UniProtKB/TrEMBL annotation:
Species for this entry: Aureobasidium pullulans (Black yeast)
Annotated Gene Ontology cellular component terms: nucleus
Classification of source organism: Eukaryota, Fungi, Dikarya, Ascomycota, Pezizomycotina
Domain of life: Eukaryota
Biased composition (Polar residues): 1-21, 99-114, 272-283, 293-305
Region Disordered: start-end pairs: 1-24, 51-131, 272-319
Ranges of compositional bias, category Basic residues: 76-85
Ranges where the FAM50A/XAP5 C-terminal domain occurs: 177-356
Record-linked PANTHER family: PROTEIN FAM50A (PTHR12722:SF0), XAP-5 PROTEIN-RELATED (PTHR12722)
Name the UniProt record assigns to this protein: XAP5-domain-containing protein
């Protein structure tokens, strides 16, 4: 009974008492007997300061782990992560690996030296500033380079030289000869012959030559000789089913590759060919690209004595029925009758490839292919 009663009393045990001394313990150990009040306050302040320094030093120290080595450069070994295969069977190995992972992570954390806030601030101050490089903006599609005055002057000179070269080439192409076979039409096709023209000539010049060629070739044929009495203003050129105005150049249709109902109106080349003269007598115009020039004496001499035979010119052997020379007065009297009812004036803004052909009354034509 005595032993049970003694065990019930509170007995001091060193295992349950703190080992660290407080400021009061230090003060009681240093103070013996009665002391002055000022001396007591001084000793108490010294004890509190000593306790604060001890706590600060103990906070900087890192608790040693059993797995750590004495070498400060020791680095814990990292465990390789095992890749989990999809669709594979599992027998509990993944749970074992997961259970080992937290302990290793705790060890790695305990092994790394803990840095204080002051050390981190000092490291940030000592590190040099990182310079950011300016990268190109990928959102911009094209960036024009800044050009100097000299580069701009050279570019302007190059453009001017290219413009002059093009005008010279264009004028040489306009001086190129080609053949245009034709027929006279007054309800029936009357063979007319062919005219040797230049690509830069206008339509009215072709009509003037066509009526003279018909009179010369016709001979005793009265039907042909009467075409020479018709004035140029009363004649009209019908190419396919399109009436070509007098003021257009043949080169206009060639360079623009104008297409009519039945294909290109004038399928001749707008580039220099083997028949293009190398040295043109007429100089290139400076203001425009398609200025008509009056026929000179040299061109007339070339027409009388051609240097290139007709068989080598463009247009030789073409179908003459597609090019008709028509009296305008006859057309006004018979434009309600087929085929004159299908003819229409040329419109440069019109697309003839997808256009539905209609007569003067608005009725659509149906042509068998």
């Amino acid at each position: 009974m005595d032993s049970e009663g003694n065990s019930g009393t509170s007995t001091p045990n060193s295992r349950f008492t703190t080992q660290a001394k407080t400021a009061d313990d230090i003060l009681s150990a240093q103070t013996v007997g009665l002391v002055q009040l000022d001396d007591f306050r001084k000793r108490r302040a010294d004890a509190i300061d000593a306790k604060e320094r001890e706590a600060l030093e103990s906070g900087r120290a890192t608790p040693a782990s059993a797995t750590d080595s004495s070498d400060p450069t020791f680095k814990p070994s990292k465990k390789k992560r095992k890749t989990v295969k999809k669709g594979a069977l599992s027998f509990g190995n993944d749970e074992d690996n997961d259970s080992q992972t937290p302990t290793e992570s705790l060890k790695s954390r305990s092994s790394t030296p803990a840095a204080t806030k002051e050390d981190k601030i000092n490291e940030e101050d000592d590190s040099p500033p990182i310079k950011k490089r300016l990268a190109a903006n990928s959102n911009v599609g094209f960036m024009a380079k800044s050009m100097s005055k000299l580069a701009l002057l050279r570019e302007a000179q190059t453009r001017e030289q290219l413009r002059k070269d093009f005008l010279v080439m264009q004028e040489a192409v306009k001086q190129t000869d080609f053949l245009l076979p034709f027929v006279f039409y007054d309800g029936t096709n009357i063979p007319g012959g062919q005219c040797r023209m230049k690509k830069g000539d206008m339509v009215w010049l072709f009509l003037d030559r066509a009526r003279k060629v018909g009179a010369e070739v016709g001979g005793s044929d009265k039907a042909r000789r009467e075409w020479a009495r018709v004035g140029v203003d009363d004649l009209m050129l019908v190419k396919g089913d399109i009436i070509i105005p007098h003021h257009y150049e043949f080169y206009y249709f060639m360079v623009n590759k104008t297409i009519g109902y039945n294909g290109p109106l004038f399928p001749h080349s707008a580039e220099p060919t083997a028949n293009t003269p190398l040295d043109t007598s007429a100089s290139a115009p400076a203001g425009g690209l398609s200025i008509p020039t009056a026929p000179s004496k040299t061109s007339k001499a070339q027409m009388q004595s051609p240097a290139v035979p007709d068989a080598d010119l463009e247009g030789f052997g073409d179908d003459s029925n597609s090019t008709k020379v028509v009296d305008r007065r006859w057309y006004e009297r018979n434009k309600h009758i087929f085929p004159a009812s299908t003819w229409e004036d040329f419109d440069p803004t019109k697309d003839y490839t997808n256009h539905v052909r209609k007569d003067v009354n608005g009725n659509a034509f149906f042509f068998s292919s």
